[in-house]
Amino acid sequence: MIQVLDKTFEVFITREEIQDEVSSLAKQINVDFQNEEVVFIAVLNGSFMFASDIMKSIDLDCEISFIKMSSYQGTESTGRVDELIGLNNNLKDKNVIILEDIIDTGITIDKIISLMDEQAPKSVKICSLLYKPDAFQGVHRPDYVGFSIPNAFVVGYGLDYNEKGRNLDAIYKIKN
Questions:
Q1: Hey, which bits of 74-163 come out as E strands?
Q2: Count of the separate structural domains present in the chain
Q3: Active site residues
């Protein structure tokens, strides 16, 4: 168990389980996009560890860029998505893979895809380390999912609680 600010968390997904799944996701992407160029768009801040680890196993002709969106305050989604850092890449006729740490309500990913659609990419796929199907209310479900998890609050491996806990190498679930 660990303490992050005023909350207690317990190990939910180990470092080894994360690394195995990230490797598996990268292998599938390598197969699916063989002989294709891909633009990876990592959603900050949460996906920085996931993006770094998955890119180490990608053997495609690719580039990576980062965008920053915000929809959380504390442990609750605000239900609103604010674009903080925009998209600078030209995505016209490109294969795009969005790298997300977690998809819960789907509000953020829907907003990102609506922004990207304006540039007419060849394809847009979503790769998320974590997915909460019970919380999902969006339109665009992830194409690649590391772990489907219950609707519990998690921290670690890039995920935060009020900006703390991102540096943890495993994923922890809040203890009730």
A1: 76-85, 95-103, 123-131, 144-148, 154-155
A2: 1
A3: 104
